[in-house]
Amino acid sequence: MSILYFSVIFVVSLAVLLKSADWFVDSAERIGLSMGISPFIIGVTIVAFGTSLPELATAIVSVLEGESGIVAGTVVGSNITNIALVLGLVVIVVGSIELEYNIWHIDMPYLWGSAFILYFIFQDSQVSWFESLICIIGIGIFLSYSIQSKRDEEVQQVKVSWKQYVMLIVGGGLVAISSDYVIYAIIELSAIAGIDSELISLSAVALGTSLPEVIVSLNAAKKGRASIAVGNVLGSNVFNSYVVIGIPALFGPLQIPDKINAFFLPLMIAMTVMFGIVSNNKNITRWEGFLLMIFYLVFMAEIFAQAA
What we know:
A middle domain of Talin 1, two-stranded antiparallel sheet, 10 helices, 79% helix, globular
């Protein structure tokens, strides 16, 4: 009965997540366009922030409940999943992604920087208050640049009504709430299978908190808004590395499990570098999407090997 109960919760929550994510991306894009903001900036700020809220909520609750080891696993696992699974699936579905401009001007170097900063912060197996402050300053600088920067992308401004703002709030709220239930169901089902909490955070929790990115990015790509999908992945990873590590560390001690530093953190660095390589020529092809998916299979294979 327990398996059936949690399976029903998972299916229902996922259905709500699908619909609310669709509302969120539609309203976010229209509001952004009405302000003259490019689709990429919409993805890297509004959409990325909204779809990363589940990671932040899960991280804060984990620290408050004395399970801070889950936080690092969730962030590292989610960042790997965003690049390898989310971006890989999007490229495979749409065939290829043509970027309107070179994200290497500042966006990709900033993503690389956040990954390497996270690597050095994790080396002593804990996150100090000062390191938490550095992370918060880092995301502030990134958002300031993203919002103020002027892109060479033509934006067709549209008019929006108050309903779009309501849909943005309702959609974002339902994404966060339904994601929590999806995570809850996944954790319980994994616990029944007897999987360690560290591995659960890397796989089940990371996948659960990345579901908004998966769904929002796929929906955006299918509607011809690939820039939002790429911006969402990039922005979500920067958000995870800085905010989901920085803010929870203010609520209590944040410990980094040895398993994270030994294999999964270096893999996250490798995936971040791979993201930069495949986007270097402003075109991400389908075969590169399959390559990213192979890395995700390697990631999951290592988790299963350690769980055995």
